[in-house]
């Protein structure tokens, strides 16, 4: 009877382990094989941010753009080859995603201390966490054990990452397609408390929309000409006051109709997410804990584990 019970429990645990796709990710995945991993990544991220504060934002965004396209598998980092066109030239990334040279530096530093052990996908996860923490945001334990994809897909990147022209319903469905809730959507969008956007992404909003503070629109118009094709790459901060500090002011901006992107203001525009925005504005600690939970959840999207994929030596190409 006892042994029957024991094999039943074993079976039940096995079923649980198989049922949850990220069962193999764990916080101590490299504790034996690369004990210096965390300080090595952090010091390289830190130098990059000291050199340019915006880099923290750019690195955080890379993790989002990786995870939303065939899972967190480092596919975003692959350069184009003769056999595939990668994700770097997809619409959401071209002339926009940045920090690839910093990722190369981090990868080299990690290869120096433990060659051939740590995946590029995991490096993006740790880098995103460190960027947030260094810019004054929360710290958390990152789950690890992802492996790297051997291919990348331009079309998957074009289809997977929602454009800033999205309305609320499209934002909600693009997140829910990946198992992320509406609350996760709002919490993760709080990442726009840091970083910059190009004029081409917010021009229609500052000239044509009505749910925008008029003096804010004027301020942004000053460095983003009305005519399409002029000043397209001029930058403006996603959070008007503290774009290099990770706080909850993104939500304050939305309530004041000072969201920079159309998609930002959709989260506070009389719809179902208004109450979440208000709660993150009034309670920074609720934002922090929901953001951390959502980052971990995003990091769990379809990882390659076990013997799937590979541990790339150079994040830009397959071995
Ligand atoms: C909800 C849907 C989202 C949309 C439509 C969106 C769209 C955008 C756009 C259009 C930009 C400016 C790009 C440019 O002008 O070149 C941007 C920047 C940024 N996004 Fe998002 N984003 C979304 C969600 C997220 C999430 C979930 C994160 C991270 C958790 C994130 C992190 C960032 C950061 C940090 C920047 C600034 C990057 C830099 O300065 O280099 N975004 N986003
Ligand atoms: C604003 O809307 C008008 C009318 O739809 C359009 O012609 C114009 O190009 C738009 N301007 C911008 C900057 O989007
Ligand atoms: C300018 O670009 C916006 C957004 O892409 C577009 O909706 C609009 O029609 C364009 N306006 C002109 C005059 O081409």
TrEMBL record:
This is Uncharacterized protein. It comes from Pistacia atlantica.
